[in-house]
């Protein structure tokens, strides 16, 4: 097997498309040309993407909200309870029914970031970012979120962590 690092790789994480820069490992069999793609720390990537998306000023789609909930490893009922929502309301939001006001969405984003920020070492999080957001309507097509692996210091050692490639 021959290992290389792909300069760029797009992946749908189940609601949010990401473009991974210089991070994805490609293993290619020299005998049969079979290829296998390996994304390092997929769980960490999902958490970093969820945090990055929560900080972006464009309205969340139902699929993105569902992705964020699943990244937090919560059922609809658990997530609704944590967000102080009726489960039916969350279900409607995840199915793109209108009804989320800007205030509700910003509060949801604050809560999501509060759950994630300690696990996402490389993405800068400041609650003031969400407090000052003016949510714009969602534009299609939505460009992939670009992410890259970086080295960060965590408890006196350097570790890999996912960061947004371009803001």
Structural write-up:
The chain has 167 residues and is an alpha+beta fold. It has one domain (2-164). The protein is 35% helix and 27% strand. The chain contains six helices and five strands, in the order E-E-E-H-H-H-H-H-H-E-E. It has helices at residues 42-54, 62-71, 76-82, 87-94, 102-116, 127-131; strands at residues 2-12, 17-28, 35-38, 145-154, 157-164. Strands 1, 2, 3, 4 and 5 form a five-stranded mixed β-sheet that branches. A hairpin with a 6-residue loop joins strand 2 and strand 3 (35-38). The longest helix has 15 residues, at 102-116. The radius of gyration is 17 Å and the shape is globular. It starts with a strand and ends with a strand.
- The number of distinct helices, counting runs of at least 4 residues, comes to 6
Query: Which descriptor suits the 3D outline?
Result: globular
Major sheet: 5 strands, mixed
- Rg from Cα: 17 Å
Based on DSSP secondary structure assignment, what is the total number of beta strands?
5
* First-last Cα distance: 36 Å
Q: Helicity level, as a percent range?
A: 25-40%
The chain-level structural class is alpha+beta
Low-pLDDT stretches: none
Strand content: 25-35%
Would you tell me the overall average pLDDT?
Answer: 92
Number of domains: 1
- Helix and strand sequence: EEEHHHHHHEE
């Amino acid at each position: 097997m021959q290992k290389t690092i792909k300069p760029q790789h797009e992946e749908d994480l189940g609601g949010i498309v990401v473009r991974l820069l210089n991070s994805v490992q490609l293993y290619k069999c020299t005998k049969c040309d079979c290829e296998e793609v390996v994304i390092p720390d997929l769980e960490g990537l999902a958490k970093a993407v969820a945090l990055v998306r929560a900080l972006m000023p464009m309205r969340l789609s139902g699929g993105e909200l569902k992705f964020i909930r699943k990244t937090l490893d919560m059922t609809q009922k658990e997530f609704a309870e944590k967000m102080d929502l009726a489960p039916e309301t969350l279900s409607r939001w995840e199915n793109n029914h209108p009804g989320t006001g800007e205030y509700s969405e910003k509060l949801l984003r604050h809560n999501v970031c509060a759950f994630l920020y300690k696990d996402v070492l490389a993405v800068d999080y400041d609650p003031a970012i969400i407090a000052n957001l003016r949510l714009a309507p969602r534009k299609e097509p939505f460009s992939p979120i670009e992410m890259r692996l970086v080295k960060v210091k965590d408890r006196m050692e350097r570790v890999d962590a996912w960061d947004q490639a371009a803001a």
